[in-house]
Amino acid sequence: MATTVYHVAASLDGYLTGPRPAAGLQAAGPATGVEDGGDWLSIVDPASVGAIVMGAQTYRSFIEENPAAWAFGTIPAWIFTHHEFPGIPGADITFVRGDVAEFHPDIAHDAGVKDIGLIGGGNLAAQFLDSGLLDEVVLTLVPVVLGGGRPMLPVSNATDFAVLSGSRSHGPGLVELHYSFAR
């Protein structure tokens, strides 16, 4: 069965993006949000995922910046949105509206034995966690404090302690933490 993994880069105070761009953020490595260019999406290895899930804002960053640079080839991508968007030529994209639990079995089927890579969008990741469908979080901490903005994981319910299954440092001051949720 596919493992659902939230890949996210966030500031030290837990935000994906701030109320305004932080000075020097681009020079620090992966940005902390799609408004900053989406470069942080490089933290996901397309070879490890069988399906990608993202929200409207993350997808919008792809089509506004450079749809020809779609990093996921023909990996099935599921976009949760209430908006109408164009597709990307050559990409396998499904646009959906509704509860994540309704679509999770189909997404898991697409992923096969590989991971479901959830990228961008704290609200979408929170829906997966609140529904009991988020298995792991791969968090890259970016050494900046934003003081507000879009939260990394705005859940409505507390969880038990996640288990730290790995960590590593990379880039200028970046730390990657890999957590698993006990089921």
From TrEMBL:
Single GO BP term: riboflavin biosynthetic process
Bacterial bifunctional deaminase-reductase C-terminal domain segment(s): 109-153
InterPro entries, A to Z: DHFR-like_dom_sf, RibDG_C, Riboflavin_Biosynth_HTPR
Pfam families reported in the protein's UniProt record: RibD_C
Any GO molecular function: 5-amino-6-(5-phosphoribosylamino)uracil reductase activity
Designated name of the protein: Dihydrofolate reductase family protein
